[in-house]
Amino acid sequence: MTANPVDFDASPNNLEPFWMPFTANRQFKKAPRLLVAAKDMHYQSHDGRTILDGTAGLWCVNAGHARKEITEAVAAQLGKLDYAPAFQMGHPGAFQLSNKLTQMMPDFDHVFYCNSGSEAVDSALKIALAYQRAIGQGARTRLIGRERGYHGVGFGGISVGGIVSNRKVFGPLLAGVDHLPHTHDLKRNAFVRGLPEHGAELADQLERIVALHDASTIAAVIVEPVAGSTGVLLPPKGYLQKLRAICDKYGILLIFDEVITGFGRLGASFATEYFGVVPDMITCAKGLTNGVIPMGAVFVRKGIYEAFMNAPENTIELFHGYTYSANPAACAAGLAVLDIYKREGLFERAAELAPYWEAGVHSLKGTKNVIDLRNLGMIGAIELEPREGKPTARAFEAFLGCYEKGVLIRTTGDIIALSPPLIVQKTHIDQIFDTIGKVLKTVN
Fold first, then answer.
1. What is the C-alpha separation between 142 and 214, in angstroms, rounded?
2. What angle do CA 342, 347, 350 make, to 5 degrees?
3. Which tens digit of pLDDT belongs to each residue from 165-208?
4. Nearest in space to 56 (alpha carbons), one of 404, 440, 443, 432
5. Element (H, E) at 300
6. Which residue, of 35, 163, 255, 307, is most buried by count of CB atoms within 10 Å of its CB?
7. Could you give the CA distance from residue 393 to residue 142 in angstroms, rounded to a whole number?
8. Which residues pair with 180 in a beta bridge?
9. Which letter does DSSP use for residue 395 in this model?
10. How many helices and strands in the chain, by DSSP H and E?
């Protein structure tokens, strides 16, 4: 693997100025793990080692690293048009990308752009509230999320999200938010391959919430079809179908947060295709540009956009947007990525590899401290028994051990989460699970 051509110092002499996100800063800066180059399935570390990427970066590098087609498309766009405002102006790339995306998602006919999954969630929540008002249902202001849900780090996202550490120090958050119970039932569903058999009835808790608040006050429900960042929590069979039916019954919008499950992660274009359940909006990011340039989007189902088009023609219909909405370079990256997905059949490839991946995940059954294994598509999770008095410590030691042995994994709490680039080979899958198995045997 060649070194990064940009003349960066591989070992900066002062790590302190960078306040790192979601990181134990003091621990990291004592023993930094720096990535200086990447190609296909691998990173190169600052100390010259090759690291197999078992997490597609942060669930985003679905087509593999340093794809020439994306680099060239972005470079060409920057040389021609580096920036164009999206307020009262446009550029061709934004419309080209939107057409390709809506062709991929035939139940959705409009796309709203932002810069991240967090912004996509906040945008979808605002669109939901504004839509209810536009159709004469302005009293519908409540938003319903789910325990252990992750919807980014904006105030809207952490309000409907349900990960305690992401919420507890930031005050009361948005008012009028309630939460469904999460779907993780370790007692009944441990070591199940694919979707759990038990728990579809958890969707009926939405009926309880409706009875408490009255449907006339509820604008939208937002869930991840598969909850990723909290540790890969899978929907029980029939659960999403029940949510859709209840939302339809009461006129509540259903939003799928597909920032992780979008663009082939489950072996289909999106989870909506995989499960056969069509929400009213979908949020996405990550795989949209292969992680190359920040970009997020909201897919809007037919009819929602039209509800805003009743004002006089010269007036702004939705007072929302971002300086970098539909950034030209991001659109160029997105177009190149969609071409790769289609040309190389990466969604279909993920579906074909899923059984081999599943076997790899479940090969760890019986390994020391492993209390559950979960998988769906090209996602996997290994749940470890927490160390008494030291939650998260056991998984973090496994993370460090795997990194030292040349495999990058991700941990959340005491759960190892895995999501390789969709170009992964069977030999890579073998290496991932062989390495994790060896490391876990050494972790007390």
1. 10
2. 140
3. 999 999 999 999 999 999 999 999 999 999 999 999 999 999 99
4. 432
5. strand 296-301
6. 255
7. 37
8. 146
9. H
10. 16, 15
Where do we find the tokens 């340039």?
293
Phi, psi of 153 (to 5 degrees): -120, 10
In whole angstroms, give the CA distance from residue 423 to residue 295.
Answer: 22
Q: Please enumerate in sequence order all residues whose Cβ is within 8 A of that of 22, keeping only pairs 6 or more positions apart, or say none.
A: none
Kindly give the pairing relationship between strand 415-418 and strand 410-412. antiparallel
**Who's near 211: CB < 8 A, 6+ residues apart?**
none
Q: What letter does residue 390 receive in the DSSP assignment?
A: B
For residues 124 and 258, give the distance between their C-alpha atoms in angstroms, rounded to a whole number.
12
Element (H, E) at 331: helix 328-344
Euclidean distance between CA atoms 117 and 283, whole angstroms: 7
Question: Tell me: the pLDDT tens digits for 132-144?
Answer: 999 999 999 999 9
Q: How many CB atoms lie within 10 A of CB 351?
A: 18
Q: Return the amino acid letter for 41.
A: M
Q: Which amino acid type is present at position 363?
A: S
- The answer on pLDDT for 427 being more than 50 is yes
Work out the number of other CB atoms within 10 angstroms of the CB of residue 254: 25
Residue type, 406: G
Q: Are 381 and 363 in contact (CB under 8 A)?
A: no
Nearest to 129 by CA among 176, 169, 70, 183: 176
Residue for token pair 């309630």: 178
Per-residue pLDDT, 211:
98
Residue 150 structure tokens: 């992750």
Domains belonging to the chain, first-starting first, are 25-66+345-442 (3.90.1150.10), 70-344 (3.40.640.10)
Q: Which residues neighbour 319 within 8 Å (Cβ) at sequence distance 6 or greater?
A: none
Return the residue matching tokens 């789910």.
Answer: 146
**What pTM was estimated for this model as a whole?**
0.96
Q: Residue 202: which region, alpha, beta or left (left: phi > 0; alpha: psi -120 to 50)?
A: alpha
Smallest CA-to-CA distance from 435 within 421, 422, 416, 412 is with 416
Pairing of β 50-53 and β 407-408: parallel
* Distance in angstroms (rounded) separating the CA atoms of residues 150 and 152: 6
Position 319 scores a pLDDT of 97
Residue 309, pLDDT above cutoff 80: yes
Q: Is 192 helix (H, G, I), strand (E, B) or coil?
A: coil
Contact in structure between 246 and 206 (CB atoms under 8 Å): yes
Helix/strand/coil for 423: coil
Nearest Cα neighbor of 342 from 417, 260, 422, 275 is: 422
For residue 52, give the nearest of 432, 313, 316, 389 by alpha carbon. 432
Q: Which two tokens stand for residue 270?
A: 């999106």
